[in-house]
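Before relying on records like the one below, remember that each one covers exactly one chain. Contacts with other chains, cofactors or solvent are not represented anywhere in the record.
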Amino acid sequence: MPLVIEARDVSKRFYLSHNPELKVRVLGLFGGLPRQRVEEFWALKSVTLSIAEGDSVGLIGRNGSGKSTFLKVIAGIHRPSGGQLLVARGARISSMIELGTGFHPELTGEENVMMNTSIHGLSRAEALDVYDDIVAYSGLRHFMDVPIKNYSSGMHMRLGFAIAANLHPDVLLLDEIFAVGDADFQRQCMATLESFQAQGKTLVFVSHSSAAVHAMCTRACLLDHGRLLFDGPVDQGLAEYRRVDLLAPHEALGPEPERALEATASRSRLVPGEPQDPETSWHRLAAGGKWVEEGQWVYDFLRRQGLRPEDHLLEMGCGSLSAASHLLRYMHQGRYWGFERSMELFTAGVQIELPRAGVNSDHGHFLSNEDFDLSGSPYQFDLAISSGLFRQLPLNHVGRVIATVVRKLKPGGRFFATWTPNPDPADFAPIEHDDGTTTYSDREPYHYSFEMLAALAKIVGARAEPLDDRSHPRGESVMVITRQ
């Protein structure tokens, strides 16, 4: 595909003024206080990146990494301090970068639409042609004669996105600001973006949300302290983002990459040049031990339950990928989805365990968030499983997991879950198990009665049944949950 945007060693420098107050400046002339100090700050450093027609690119990275600055350079809001930013001749770029960009607070909604469209190069006649479509899309017809300064942030966003969507751009630049809308408008935005992508248009999207990047992008570019660290598949990019995010800021930066590598090795307890016992690695012990056995059990159990390579499979609480190291070999490309709350565990799996097993993480998809949000997956699943997850969660989180997974099951889909049983729901005493572990009703590791978990399933319109299976390596019981 032809290139639409090409960045060649693009750098952007800002000057930061310290002690800028007038009093400080005046007194500094007489030696009473330090003079104003100006610092050079490079928001972008030699970024080279090509974006082709039809690409959907997610710009990811920590706060201050240069994502929004790069978007503004593409939009022409900033000029690069070094290098070149080339845009295909005749390509129309529309942007939704900052709330209120291109709006004047004293002008009405109608006046701002006309001004904003003229900024994008439309004549008055062309602006009038699209005006009704913009108003209808925004849902703000009754407010178009009201000054923008009286709009809420959500109304600002609605009008701004409505303009961007109806300019029929070749390239759409989006910052996370569009996420402030209500649920209905967000669905409308997503439908517009899907249509935009289906037409082969180009999208550049800045986000901290892994679910949003998964849903909208086919490629991820990771920026950190102004430098491009990664450009490639979304899953690998998000994994690298998590690895960088885990490092201390001075280590993640580095003119000294060796220190960053040492920090990663220290967290994983795998120190270069020193023999290590993998079974003592923190990420293998985090779920309660028996890392190897549990991964093999999940794979064998699902095969006994009829798992096929072409099925869509969800593993909730995939941890450091003990089961994924088997399942990714077996499943067809893109059919395995893993969810894990802990970025540190997931990163250890991608960076250590999958390479050790000779498995490519690109063969599957992964989600990570604190809310058990599965919206980043467009699929309904044939089978889902969680092994050892319920023992890590309080009851309200267990209920959320059940509800979330049940909503993502296909008709006839099954969700298998292991749990540590409490034979007497009225007894809140700790339970000591044969393997020497102790579980609790009020703290991790948790135990629950089957009746309690079945009641949670019933509340969300599902049915839970215990299975006569005693093969779990930690002795956990197994249930199957199906939609009613």
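The domain at 290-483 is CATH 3.40.50.150 (Rossmann fold).
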